[in-house]
Design a protein that fits this description.
Largest sheet of chain B: 2 strands, antiparallel
Strand content of chain A: under 5%
Strand content of chain B: under 5%
Number of strands of chain A: 0
Shape of chain B: globular
Oligomer: heterodimer
Strand order of the largest sheet of chain B: 1-2
Structural class of chain B: mainly alpha
Radius of gyration of chain B: 21 Å
Number of domains of chain A: 1
Shape of chain A: globular
Helix content of chain B: over 70%
Number of strands of chain B: 2
């Protein structure tokens, strides 16, 4: 067992330091939004650099703080360690930090007279801290506690303005569901502890398979019950159907920046939890099905034929149901944010394909899909926030002519929608291509997951194209459409880069998202090879 | 060796971007890009003639390949190359881009976006014709969709939004099916890369029933673009609502993508699949031929008439491909080229009739010759070419198709032959009413064609005659590709 040095927590320490500094300044009476935003952004950027260095990205590799011997060490040698550094987790950390960065940048453009800037940025940092910690976990309790740090911070973020009754309602709903899901998860964890006497993720997954006879009489059913509770408890975080109902109200009621963070970042922590908890049993079962262990039959009354395949089937069915329900409901929405929320649910369905297939190509595809989702979905919520800030209503119908009057926002939103719909040259296309190719490559019934995914992405084109149509092909009603600075109505073409008064921070965040959508859409090699290595190493380490 | 294909792609891409940003001056940029494109196409022909400058791996001349996405299980390359078939269709792309730009010279509604989208459509088509990798091919295939959606949806007629959405969804569902089929072909046959050549090499190892199922999926995917009955309903809607330039590109180029795709990615990769599935293709082809011809007889709207006759013509293309003989493929490519030129001409005619006389309804507008002699001449040239008059471009193509059908299917040739008579009937009827009837429904301020439109149509008429008299200018190139080589 290799000792894990404290330096692997450097990203977390940056986040914590920035958060504490913000609260300290706030307590001595500083009310300076740009300062808080700058501190938050700085902390996140430093943390992101540290993570990229640990991932051994060429220009930053010299600054790596996690020793190479620790990264991707086999989990069988972890002993009782609560944390493990994996490239897979580091990739997740980078994704979490990127979404936090976009939200922090964009929030620099919040109205300065708005109260609670310190609370907002502080909570954002704490939520991100929870997410990055979760990505380090090797222990079920550590994982669930980290997810709870994120959970509690985000409940507060949703309702932090305290003036908007819809935000408060959303926060309340979010809190109740979140508390329920946490209770279910912890209950599941305690059942597993009763069954096996351990909460180490590796030991749980492998014990289940190897011993077959768990230490306690009747432990098998207790263990299955425990895993069942975890499927449900974490499922709420993932917004997998049938645990998705809360998400739409919360994404709709929360301030758009927070919705961006919830969809682009904090939901992924649930996915990470799913991967971490369920990959070990699935992989071991599949490996043992190929090469049964050499041990006496009495000990080898294994669960594997009856356990792993059902798990994969459960996640496969969940993936298909989630993407289909999300898409069908998104079709019927007339509110922009609710449409995006349902589309976000359907995207979670695509990501679950990675877990159902559970091969390293599929994991890499899922990672790419999660990565892409940050730019397209978080970016889309940021644009929605910007458009709302211009005084345009929240219904899709209210967006008539937005594309022509605000070229920057229009082009950005069009790029994000096209990427969500999976149109080529966008990162959303590449991620779906890789993910579905991986499902086809695994052969067998997984091909049908690819077919379901592709049919769903064809279906999703309906509602994305509808928004494009409203934005570009319909004239605004003259009465309801207010005109702000930079907007030209009915005249010649407005200049492409007219920001229309949305603020530079927000414009930069949206710009980053758009550039990323196209850059990684045209040349995904760098990220994909990193993700593929991470997936390969994870499978080797487990 | 000059990387002419990548160079052309780059020119078109840069040209498209500049056109988008050029605003009111976009038409000059678009014209310059079209001219450069034509020069580059000439260079391709030249390099194709002199093997010293070309012939790369396999049978594709001008082949270029660079690694694009390489991870351990997925090898995607940027691979482009052309053979005789793609060369002829690229020529068609260049011609139609130039005449579309010329025809819409006086466009005033958002000219930057209009010309940019026209160029983007042609860029996508060119990409489809040169791509030799599954992903690259699919990218260009989908790139074509987006600009056409906007061309119809923003510049189109009263029901444009419905038509644009219908077009987008039909063709998108089809392309998804096609992609799955290609991926299954690649991964189930353990093809080392997603290149055309490696798919072609490995696909034969698949079991025969798998090949048949895959081929039929590909046939559905490409067939919707053709369009084949019963998935053709998007086409009349899209054409009726599309602006003239959009219709020209839609009929002239986009329909050809289906035919090209079926030859390149269907027939050449899964020949066994085609030989087993041929009866299905014959049935669909005959249905499209009869349906297209029959329904066009009942049309009063000039544009709808041309749209349905396109279904008829593309049905003959499908029949020629399904024959799976080199003569059939030669006929298919010739027909596609001919239909590209002639349907473009006829859609321009219906567009000009519409904005000169305010209607395309053959019952309301009659006897336009005294008012608009140039337009009438163009109409007549287009109609005569479309009904297959000798010495015009469709004649050699249709004749070859009938000959190939006779060779393979014997008396079944009666079906396409009979519909040719029907086609002739409805075009003659159309000319009688529109051109030579008693003048009716002519507004007082009606005038003959503007120069830009006359130039565009005139160029197409000249091409119709030149290639009609000298079809060997095309046949020579087509037969250089192995599948269409004469025995």
């Amino acid at each position: 067992m290799t000792a894990i040095p404290w330096t692997v927590f450097l990203p977390e320490l940056f986040l914590l330091a920035a958060a504490l500094l913000i609260f300290l300044l706030d307590s001595v009476g500083v009310r300076w939004l740009e300062l808080f935003g700058g501190l938050a952004t700085g902390g996140i950027v430093l943390a992101l650099f540290a993570v990229l260095a640990d991932l051994r990205f060429a220009p930053l590799a010299a600054f790596a703080t996690a020793p190479a011997s620790v990264v991707d060490a086999p989990w069988s040698q972890l002993g009782g360690s609560l944390v493990a550094v994996t490239s897979f987790g580091l990739v997740f950390q980078a994704i979490f930090l990127t979404s936090a960065l976009l939200v922090a940048l964009s929030s620099l453009s919040r109205p300065t007279k708005e109260k609670g800037a310190a609370i907002f940025f502080g909570l954002l940092l704490f939520a991100t801290l929870g997410m990055t910690l979760a990505a380090l976990s090797a222990d079920l309790i550590f994982l669930l506690l980290s997810i709870e740090i994120t959970g509690i911070s985000t409940y507060l973020l949703v309702g932090y303005t305290r003036r908007d009754p819809r935000g408060l309602e959303a926060a309340m709903k979010f809190y109740i569901i979140g508390a329920l899901s946490a209770a279910l998860s912890f209950f599941g964890a305690s059942l597993l502890y009763v069954a096996y006497g351990t909460t180490s993720l590796y030991a749980l997954g492998t014990t289940m398979i190897y011993l077959g006879h768990p230490p306690l009489a009747g432990a098998t059913s207790i263990a299955l019950l425990g895993y069942g509770f975890l499927v449900v408890g974490i499922g709420f975080k993932v917004t997998a159907v049938p645990f998705q109902a809360w998400a739409v109200d919360v994404y709709d009621g929360a301030p758009s920046d927070v919705s961006a963070f919830l969809a682009g970042g904090s939901k992924k922590v649930g996915l990470f939890g799913y991967f971490l908890v369920f990959l070990v049993p699935i992989l071991f079962a599949n490996r043992l099905a190929v090469a049964p262990p050499a041990c006496a039959p009495a000990i080898c009354v294994t669960l594997h034929p009856s356990f792993a395949v059902p798990l994969q089937v459960i996640f496969g069915v969940m993936a298909v149901v989630t993407m289909t329900v999300g898409n069908v409901l998104a079709l019927q929405q007339s509110e922009m944010k609710r449409m995006l929320a349902y589309s976000s649910i359907s995207q979670a369905g695509y990501m679950l394909i990675g877990l159902a297939v559970a091969t390293s190509p599929a994991l890499a595809g899922a990672l790419l899909q999660i990565f892409a989702h940050v730019f397209m979905k978080a970016g889309a919520f940021l644009v929605v926030g910007a458009v709302a800030g211009l005084g345009i209503g929240s219904k899709i119908e209210d967006w008539k002519g937005v594309g022509l009057r605000y070229p920057f926002l229009g082009v950005s939103f069009a790029a994000m929608l096209l990427s969500l719909a999976g149109v080529p040259l966008t990162v959303g296309f590449v991620s779906k291509f890789v993910l579905f190719s991986a499902a086809v490559q695994a052969q067998g019934w997984f091909v049908w997951l690819a077919v379901a995914g592709l049919l769903n992405s064809a279906l999703s084109v309906f509602y994305y194209a509808r928004v494009l149509r409203v934005m570009y092909m319909e004239r605004p009603d003259p009465v309801t459409a207010p005109i702000r600075s930079g907007a030209v109505l009915g005249g010649s073409e407005p200049p492409m880069l007219a920001l229309g008064g949305i603020g530079y921070g927000r414009a930069v965040a949206i710009g980053i998202a758009v550039v990323a959508i196209f850059a990684f859409g045209v040349y995904p090699q760098i990220v994909l090879s990193t993700f593929q290595n991470a997936a390969n190493h994870l499978l080797q380490a487990l | 060796m000059l990387p002419i294909l990548s160079l052309t792609l780059a020119t078109l891409f840069v040209g498209t971007v500049v056109t988008f940003l050029a605003g009111p001056r976009a038409k000059y940029v678009a014209a310059a890009v079209s001219a450069v494109f034509l020069v580059e196409i000439a260079a391709m022909f030249w390099m194709f003639t002199w093997p010293a400058f070309g012939v790369g791996p396999a049978h594709f001349a001008e082949s270029e390949s660079y690694a694009w996405i390489h991870v351990d299980w997925l090898h995607v390359n940027y691979t482009v190359g052309i053979d005789g078939i793609s060369l002829v269709l690229i020529l068609l792309t260049g011609i139609l881009q130039a005449v579309t730009v010329a025809y819409s010279w006086n466009e005033t509604k958002q000219p930057g976006a209009w010309f940019g989208l026209v160029l983007l459509t042609c860029l996508g088509c060119f990409g489809v014709f040169v791509a030799l990798d599954v992903l690259l091919f699919f990218v260009f295939w989908e790139v074509v969709l987006v600009p056409m959606f906007f061309l119809i949806g923003y510049w189109g007629g009263p029901r444009r939004r419905y038509a644009a959405l219908k077009f987008f969804i039909y063709t998108h569902v089809a392309s998804v099916t096609m992609l799955v089929a290609l991926l299954v072909t690649a991964f189930y046959s353990h093809s080392p890369t997603l290149d055309f050549a490696s798919l072609q090499g490995s696909a034969a190892t698949l079991a025969v029933p798998t090949q048949v199922i895959l081929f039929l999926s590909l046939f559905f995917g490409f067939g919707v673009k053709f369009p084949i009955v019963p998935f053709h309903t998007w086409l009349p809607d899209a054409h009726v609502e599309a602006p003239t330039g959009g219709s020209v590109l839609l009929a002239g180029l986009l329909l050809k993508l289906g035919g090209y795709g079926l030859i390149r990615w269907g027939l050449e990769i899964l020949p066994t699949g085609l030989s087993h599935a041929a009866p299905v293709l014959y049935a669909v082809a005959f249905a499209s031929i009869i349906w297209g011809a029959g329904v066009s007889l009942a049309q009063r709207d000039l544009k709808r008439l041309v749209a349905y006759s396109s279904i008829n013509h593309m049905g003959i293309v499908l029949l020629a491909i399904a024959l799976d003989t080199s003569l059939g493929l030669l006929a298919a490519v010739l027909l596609m080229f001919a239909h590209g030129i002639v349907s473009a001409l006829l859609f321009m005619v219906s567009g000009s009739v519409h904005h000169t006389f305010g209607s395309r309804d053959l019952a309301t507008v009659n006897g336009i010759t005294p008012t608009a002699p140039t337009l009438s001449t163009m109409t007549m040239a287009g109609a005569l070419a479309s009904l297959g008059l000798p010495a015009l471009i469709s004649f050699p193509a249709e004749f070859t198709a009938l000959l190939a059908t006779w060779d393979k299917l014997g008396y079944w040739v009666v079906i396409p032959l009979f519909t040719l008579v029907v086609t002739a009937a409805f075009y003659i009827w159309m000319m009688q009413r529109l051109l030579f009837g008693t003048p009716k429904g002519i507004p007082a301020d009606a005038h003959d064609l503007p120069y830009a439109e006359a130039l565009a149509m005139g160029a197409l008429v000249v091409l119709t005659v030149v290639y009609g008299i000298l079809p060997n200018l095309l046949v020579h190139w087509i037969t250089l590709s192995p599948v269409a080589g004469l025995p």
